[in-house]
């Protein structure tokens, strides 16, 4: 018996419960979780029969003889180990028969989940399953294990060790031994444990595998995850489906979710190490190339390039970079592939129209306007030296850059559009232009068109056809959607706005683009939200998501998730916000201007959790971007959220807030402020008198802003409220008072009902309001209901 093993409490409790009832136990987990040792320790003081399916030389005669009712006594205990290796049908039937016996307590141990041949018995008898999750050591158990070796760790170090090892007893034991020799928790210890465990897998797992299965797993290990078609492409095997089934049955080291398979990280590392030794570099390159080819066929360019780089197929990399550069930044992968573009030598770029234009666009996205303009000038000079089709291509790329370069803003855009050479339009040779950059907006999408909003109706008539014609498919529905958005921002008639947006969305169905439809849907959702119709807003978004998936416009999904998160913030749904934050881009790791909608959603999430410094840091990045790329709308939104943040920090906020009001009033924009009503309402109240005498603020506009913000604050009291106190933070008396308030009782009646003094009730009410982050009864009731306190 391994005296260094520490049995997990939860698994032990389940074994005890099963023993009392003589219920069959099925215990499974990957290598190293101490499955067999757990059972041996638990049964150390009683007799039991032990059989291993790895031996293959036992039969039913090894089972205990049946007892009669007269004999009585405790159940006979039979442990059958390594069940994942049992393929013999006859022995499977023997085990099924043994499970039916009332005089036998059967414990089955396996690396894999319940196999198909046991499922019927499982459904009929409901035997107890102890999964891998129950075998994982918790922090207290890991601490006890370390103590046995005379090793210790801080609480933070211990938590990290348990997290990194997934509670695997064997790897924690390895770490304990190394720490007893002087090692300390950290990357070096983690690597040492990984190497030792990899050696253990070689001896304990790989030697048991069929050679065909082991070879298959090594081949697919060139990627981190794969589906069946990718596995077939990498290996060239027609038996990939069968081998995946065998892998799943052979051990609990392969997971599958929605058709995507993943190998455990430690096993993946071991397979790659073994492959490097047994197959060599040339084989790894071959399988990596196969994976790259599959990714390329699927349009997953970043992954394809990573595989081609691994395979050393550099010519393919350049071809893919050129192909990607033909797409607009919203559909291409300029930022993700910047490493590959920036690795190109000037000689590889110069002389290629597509790459020169791509470098100009990339540097603009990286907010390096000087480098962007330098490549633009090189392309312009090159255009003068060539003829024929290449000259035509260069002209079209220059026209495209004139319109699309982010750092140039949108001033003078109409002049540029009117002077695009007609030959480019007639031959349909102008590269595709995305107005929205996958954001739910046309006015604040690829470029900022706030200044157009001042003349929205006139421009829709005078320039609408021209713009729509130049943009081609991206122009379908654009004029109606853009006009509808402009009117919405200025508080236009609801029916007219909805009509324009609906018509625009319908126009996209006739050969248009889902990006324009997303802008229409996004504004409609904001309109429903403004009118208190959260249910319709959510239904609209869910319905549109189905269309996006059907049309394979998957580039819209990240910003759709951000829009879902914004709805969750209004609902006070903390769990949905947490899920969004888990997948949101990390601005500290890298700042990508194409993620601006998600960044501004993150700012709101930070405000809802009280992370004010994080909010300010991200807002400062957004402020720099808005200034560099002439983004008026984002500048106003950033300044508004900054004022809210500083207000909550108790710092100076009025000057910045009033400046936003003046700028917004200049455009007659209401909605981007009033939609933040729950967060800005207190600020508006405090500056109300000053605004009434501010000559730069229109009184009618200001009055409407106050009214709309107040309505939003009443409808969505939990919006952007700091992480509220959990139920445990409220005493029983505090909750009782809150619930009696909800029933409509006065302070006096509540005091009588609870046998308290009125002063005590008032104190609890005041504390409840403080914890809920509200200032009145109505808001308190709404917020408490959103937190399921009532």
TrEMBL record:
Gene3D superfamilies on file: P-loop containing nucleotide triphosphate hydrolases, Tetratricopeptide repeat domain, Winged helix-like DNA-binding domain superfamily/Winged helix DNA-binding domain
Domain HTH luxR-type: 723-788
Keywords per UniProt: DNA-binding, Transcription, Transcription regulation
A single BP term in Gene Ontology: regulation of DNA-templated transcription
GO molecular function: DNA binding
Coiled-coil annotated spans: none
Pfam families, A to Z: GerE, TPR_MalT, WHD_MalT
Keyword DNA-binding: yes
Domain of life the protein comes from: Bacteria
UniProt name for this protein: HTH luxR-type domain-containing protein
Species, as recorded: Bianquea renquensis
Lineage of origin: Bacteria, Bacillati, Bacillota, Clostridia, Eubacteriales
